[in-house]
Amino acid sequence: MPGENLSRDEARERAALLSVDGYEVSLDVRSAVGDTQGEGPRTFRSVTTLRFRCNEPGASSFADLVAPSVTAVSLNGRDLDPSEVFDGTRIALEDLAADNELVVDAQCAYSRTGEGLHRFVDPEDGEVYLYTQYEPADSRRVFANFEQPDLKAPFRFEVRAPEEWTVWSNGAGERMNEGREALPQKGGGGRRAGGVWRFAETKPISTYITCVVAGPYHYVTDSYERTLEDGTRLEIPLGALCRKGLAPHFDADDVFLITKQGLDFFHDHFDYPYPFGKYDQAFVPEYNLGAMENPGLVTFREEYIFRGKVTRASYEGRANTILHEMAHMWFGDLVTMEWWDDLWLKESFADFMGAFANVGATRFKDAWITFANRRKAWAYRADQLPSTHPVTADIRDLEDAKLNFDGITYAKGASALKQLVAYVGQDAFLEGARRYFKRHAYGNTRLGDLLSVLEETSGRDMAAWARSWLQTAGVNSLTPQVLLSAEGRIDELAVVQEAAESHPELRPHRVAVGLYRRTGEGSLERYARAEVDVDGPRTVVAELAGAEAPELVLVNDDDLTYCKTRFDDTSLATLREHLGSLTDPLARALCWSALWNMTRDALLPARDFIGLVLRFAGRESGIGVLQMLHAWAESALVHYVAPEWRETGGRLLGEGALRELREAAPGSEPQLAWARFFAAVASGEAELSLLRGLLDGSEKINGLEVDQELRWAFLSPLAAHGVADEAVLAAELARDDTASGKRHQVRCLAARPSAAVKAQAWAQVVESDALSNALVEATIAGFERSSQRELLAPYTEKYFAAIERVWAERSIQIGMDVVRGLFPSLMDSQDTLDATDAWLSAHEDAAPALRRLVLEARDDLSRALRGQACDAAAAR
After folding, report:
1. pTM for the complete prediction?
2. How many Cβ atoms sit within 10 Å of the Cβ of residue 708?
3. How far apart are CA 876 and CA 874, in angstroms?
4. Can you tell me the distance from the alpha carbon of 805 to that of 379, in angstroms, rounded to the nearest whole number?
């Protein structure tokens, strides 16, 4: 892994020297099917012709390629000795001319880690499927290139594939006969045929968003049409594809509906027609990410195709992802950041636009509630880690870049943009975006390029805003202070702003402050609201002076800013008794989020948070919020309650979940959500017996359909508690002999409470690279079970002995999965904290990205111990 790194300085030096005119890439992937090639990795042939200019003739540079072998290299007609110019990751280029042509013929390796050209064999029917995934720098695993975002170029792809396959790429495809004549095409990919596939030249794009998808995929087509303001007719061919085994579950009509609604929305607001021709969306197996914005060929994880019944929140999440990736067609693909420092220029905008377009264009009008409750929780956690960073980060190299696809770059950046819209106004914000696209189309930008257009459209000083919101780290806390008069009215209401010592920046916040009281019917409703600019340590909200005394003061009502909301004593007491009476769903979600942040900050005992969930979650109307509460309650039980109360807390959660499951409306989404939560927390003999009965049909809950996905959810705790053995899991796999079923079975097998099982799972993940990325993830998920702390105790020492070797030998994705997933967080004691500190002290020269992962895990552990101490103190 270290030899594959590329530094920012190297990239800047190369960009100053070179400019790229175009790529021609020819891949032969017929080797993906049939017998293996013997020893070593399975490979495919990759031939790249790269034309570029050098503004200093005679200078030297390098091209990027990660491949097992190179057959031939030619530079400007001169044959070079591959053994002399290729070191496994780079091709040395000496004595460059003003105009250059580089031809590289290589044997590249198929991937099993989701990086580069991933090869997947479907266990259901033996079919082979391929797709590429590159961000931030894995296209060099597929073809020779200059792997950095600011060396954009047009691309032409040609792919030779097996006879029965279809191939897709960024541009529209034609299949050719052996004489290389075009044969009839269908949509963006074409009919099943043999031979060579050729694809239309792309617009200038970065290497990391080129894409190839190939295999016997199920493919559905549609089209989008629109008359533009100048009267021209825009027609975009639409396609959606998935594995054949998922075709019966593929609701392509809904995917196309959201796609068309999104295209309408962005055309209405961006005033720049979609620039990349067709729009295919591929749902692919064993995908590491949620999705990737390859222009003309967006890739998604296939879990967005739902094999069983899911709640509205899952459909909303899929719609958000579709719209997020679509926003990238403008923010990221048309206009691209110069280097990964400004990753936020695409990811923050796409994250914001996902919610913005969901609310504005689709049936999911509560998407901002989901954003406040779910996305911001991700940001708040990331922003309190020792690795927190400004939204505009200091990205020294590609390993830094890989780790910065985090809650700050996405959700905090999107929250800052939401605050920016409140600061400059929506019209000025969107007009700034329109100018930005037109001014920088097919180019690369930095922070200042965006700020300049926003200053033009808003008349605001964007430099000061950027310094506070984009160039500093950390999250502020806002707490209300209420002074009442003798008559029981507000004499003064102020907002106190605080920051952590490590990141003391006090930011300007545009916030709404809401006052709430109970009505005669018992509901808790807002009766007064004021917007104010909070700046500095204390800001008086003059507009609310004289108002009736509130029972609840909600700072950041309507979720205008990014902050941790705190409560005064009266407000907290009101929430303890009347949280379920709060009628506004966004206000309720904000209060839940604030209470969870207080739990994580050891300001609220975890058992109190669990008690609030048990008391009020059953009255939650938002299904997405309810599912988030379930996740938080389980996390509170596993990490934040005092160890001596875990058994009691688990019993209370199990009983409460079962009660709500039985009381939920038959066949409703809450019933499904409570069923899944019940399975997650079930531990007692009676609870496990009920799950077993629901599986074999001897038990029924009115309206609950136990489909295949829910069967696996019920089997997971049964396996973890020793009730479902290997034979039971094998029988279930026979019932669901699919790729999804295999992942579930692997997870359940690793969850069994046996020292031998844990040793085998550890060896499969840490000592071997035989498992694919998806099965590594499933094995780790099964290995780490909170009910098995004693079984996991021996692996603390093994973890610290192994991680540096794993990081050096495995791909960065697998390295991240192992280092994060196997950290001994369930060994939540001072001894584990000391062992972590000892490793950090002894490995100061370890890879910075590896140290960052360990530091983050250490911080989570330390936070858990503080939470446990707070919870234990509450019991005394």
Report:
1. 0.95
2. 16
3. 6
4. 30
